[in-house]
Amino acid sequence: MTSTPPATALWPDLPYEAFAATMHLLHMGLQMVGKLTLLKPFEPQWANVALGLTSTGLTTGPVPWRGGSFTANADFARHEVGIITSWGTVGGFELGPMSVAGWHERFFDALAGAGVAVTINEKPQEVADPVLFTEDLAPRPYDNALVEAWFQAMRASAGVMERYRACFSRKTPPIGFMWGTFDLRDMRLGGTSAPMDPDPGYIGRNAMDEDLVESGWWPGSEAYPRPAYYSFTYPKPAGIENVDLEPAAGRWDAKLGEFVLDYDDVRLANDPEAALLAFLDSTYAAGASLAGWDPAWVCPGLPLEAPTGDAT
């Protein structure tokens, strides 16, 4: 017997105010997990550091280690973090209310238990007023239901974004979760060196060195306290803020300097997938046309029909 998850499970409500405290613990904890990907060979636009989505959580994928590899997985169905190595050892711990420092202690105990002795930079990245992981001692909540809603919203969004990504014939890194900024990212690259800001910093210097159209989803922040989709073109083409979008709820946010579409406008739509795909397509079309990109870079996204009799 097969079953289909209800739409409310795929596109759940995710109130930022309720999720914010749990999100802090998740953000800092997943930064610790994500920093392990820095052991991988560097790829342009930091493609190597994105955490991949699984059916139930996030993964580092295989991380090279002393001739073998290990993988760290965060599972938000079982609410646990697990470590597995290529030589067969495992470690892990249960997720629940704790301090950031407590996550750090449990995580590195799990790594050590699996025989992986690594260190990371203890300073959180891309956050305001960072506190070292080991010094963030305040108790933090961990709300299982909200974590599951956050992940299911991201997993549903990723499914649409994967369809969108498949229709681009130029360079596009895999869709992944960026643990620094706590967002799900897709990037389409034009292949032309882009002028940098006067002081882009180490992260920006290695991320914004080509013309691009980036889009994604994030669960909100103090500056924008609700989950939303975003899209921007870099360098910013003149007049892009005046373009009409689909769906009509999509808009240019002058404060953020990018297009946004609130998650609630997608999840409550008659067809959430169509609404999100329209936003991704229309914001890309706006940026690509103003930047002079070749329309042929967007391909049909379907394989050519196989000749009769060919195996599939």
How would the blueprint of this fold be written?
Blueprint lengths: L6 H4 L5 H20 L16 E2 L3 E3 L3 E3 L2 E8 L4 E6 L4 E5 L5 H14 L30 H22 L10 E3 L4 E11 L7 H5 L4 E9 L9 E7 L16 E3 L4 E5 H5 L4 H20 L21
Antiparallel strand pairs: 1-2, 2-4, 3-4, 4-5, 5-6, 7-8, 8-9, 9-10, 10-12, 11-12
| Straight-line distance between termini | 26 Å
How is the biggest beta sheet arranged? 6 strands, antiparallel
Along the chain, the helix and strand elements come as: HHEEEEEEHHEEHEEEEHH
Q: What structural class is derived from the secondary structure elements? A: alpha+beta
Number of domains: 2
* Proportion of strand residues: 15-25%
* Percentage of residues assigned to helices: 25-40%
User: Overall mean pLDDT score?
Assistant: 92
Low-confidence stretches: none
Rg from Cα: 20 Å
| Count of alpha and pi helical runs | 7
Number of DSSP strands? 12
Shape: globular
Brief overview, please?
The chain is α+β, with helices and mostly antiparallel strands and 312 residues long.
Describe what you observe in this structure:
The protein is of the alpha+beta class and about 300 residues long. The protein has 2 domains: about 120 residues; about 150 residues, no CATH class. The chain is built from 7 helices and 12 strands. The strands form 2 sheets. Strands 1, 2, 3, 4, 5 and 6 form a 6-stranded antiparallel sheet that branches. The chain is globular, with a radius of gyration of 20 Å. The mean pLDDT is about 90.
Question: Which tags fit this structure?
Answer:
alpha+beta; 6-stranded antiparallel beta sheet; single chain; 312 residues
